[in-house]
Amino acid sequence: MPEEELPQEFDVIVVGAGPVGENAADRAHKAGLTVAIIEKHLVGGECSFYACSPSKALLRPIHATRASQRVQGSEGAHVDPQGVLARRDSWINRVGTSDTLDDSGQVGWLDHVGITLLRGAARLVGERTVEVGGRTLRARQAVVLATGTMAAVPPIPGLREANAWTNREATTSRRIPDRLAVLGGGVVACELAQVFAAIGSKVTIVERADGLLGRHEAFAGKAVAEALERDGVDVLLGTKAESVSRLGPTGEVTVELSGGKTLKADELLVAVGRTPATKGLGVEEVGGRLDRSGYVSVTDQMEVEGVSGDKPWLYAVGDVNGRALLTHMGKYQARAVGDLIGARVAGREPDAGKTTPWAVALGSPQVVFTDPEVAAAGLTEEEARAAGIRIRVVDLPMDSAAGAGLQAEGYQGQARIVVDEDNGVLVGATFVGQDTADLVHAATVAIVGKVPLTTLWHAVPSYPTMSEIWLRLLEEYGL
C-alpha cells in the first residue's frame, strides 16, 4: 500500500534492512509481532550489493581457475576478466548496462513474509519513537538499530578531494584500471588487490603496519603477502600515505609516501577499516551511549546502554555495536534479539541460551577469501596470552593431511591450534591454504562447545580429506 496509508504504530521497528536487520525483523515477526523495517538505500544492505556477495563473486572464478591449474590433467583454465565482472553483476542484480542495482528480490521477500518496508533515513526522536521521511512512527514494544558501518576515510591531506574508491566503488566497478593503489592491509584490501591483479591491474598495497591482516596470526598475513607478490602486487609495508592529489576528477592519482617515495596510479582504493553509521541516528538524544569510535554501547543482550524507560526498548545489533564486524555474527545477534523481544512481549522468561549471543566473546569465525584462504576461529596466540590463558600452540604444515596433496600438487599452507592447557580445550584455530574455508566450522563447533581434546580425538576425519589435518594436529599435541 502507499506509505501515506501505512499504520503509524507497529510492535517492532527495525532501522536498517541489511542481512542483520532482516534477521531481526524476521525473528520478531515469527514471534507474532507486527514489524516495520526502514531502509534509506537498498534492501539487502552493504553485504548484498557492495561487500560479501560481490567480492566473493569476483574471487570465486580466480580461485577455481588456480585450483584447476594446480591439479595435473586440468591445467588449461584461465581467468576471463569480462566474465568475472559479468558474474559479479549477476550477483548484485545490476540492471542491464546501467549502474542501477535492483533490490526488488529482497523487497519481495519482505512483502511475502508480511514485514512492512519504509524508505528513508530514520532518526530516534523519543522513547519508542522514530521519524522517517517526515512521518513519525511509534513502536509499541521495541526499536532495533541495525545500520551497520561505512568505509572509513582517514584525514590524509587531499584524500577526500581525490574521489578515491571505497569498497563500494571497487566491488561494483566495470572499469579495470591499469594501475590501482590500495591503502590498507586488512581483509578488504587483500581480497580486492588480488581480484584486480588477476583481471589486469598493476596493484600496489600501501600498509602502515609491518604485516598484512593484522588481526590474524602473523603467519597468515605473511602467506597472503607472499601470494600477492607472486601475483605481481607490490606490497609496501611500514609505509604511510602522507598526502594525495589527483589531476581532475578522474585523472592520475599521486600518493606521496613516507620516506620520500611517490606512487602514481589510475585509481586509489581506500580500505583502512570501517566507521559506524550512527551519525544523525539520534541515539544520544534518547539517552543511549556511543563509545569513543561512535559505536553503540550495548549490554550482552544487545540492549543500548543508558536508555531510560519502564522496560528495555532499544537494541543495537551487528556492526553498529562494534562487537564483531562480520555479517554472520551480526545475524547471530539479530536472531537472539528477535527471540528476546518475542519472549518479553509474551511475558515469558527469556531463554538465556537463545537470547544472549555469548559466543561473540569467544572470537568470531572468519574466512579471508584470498588465495590462499585464511580460515580462523576463536583467539589468536597473542589474544589468548593477553587474556591470561595458559596455552600451548601446535603448528603443522597443511600437507600433513593426505587430502591436501590430492587437492593440489605441491600444496602449500599452515595450520595452528591454540589450546587452553588448564581446561584441555581449543580456544583458537587458524588454517591457511587453498580450500581451507570449510575447515573453520569444525573449529567453531569445538571452541563454542568447549569440546575436550580427548573427546575431539574420537571425531575421526574421513580419509583422504583436508579434514585429516585435525587428526595430525591432535597427534602432534600428544593424543
Automatic annotation (TrEMBL):
Cofactor remark: Binds 1 FAD per subunit.
Domain Pyridine nucleotide-disulphide oxidoreductase dimerisation, chain residue ranges per copy: 365-470
Cofactor: FAD
Disulfide bond residue pairs: C47-C52
Any one GO MF annotation of this record: NAD(P)H dehydrogenase (quinone) activity
Record's keyword terms, sorted: FAD, Flavoprotein, NAD, Nucleotide-binding
Domain FAD/NAD(P)-binding: 10-329
Pfam families, A to Z: Pyr_redox_2, Pyr_redox_dim
Organism domain of life: Bacteria
Binding annotation for NAD(+): G184, G185, G186, V187, V188, A189, C190, E191, E207, G273
Residues that, per the record, bind FAD: K56, D319
Family label: Belongs to the class-I pyridine nucleotide-disulfide oxidoreductase family.
Designated name of the protein: NAD(P)/FAD-dependent oxidoreductase
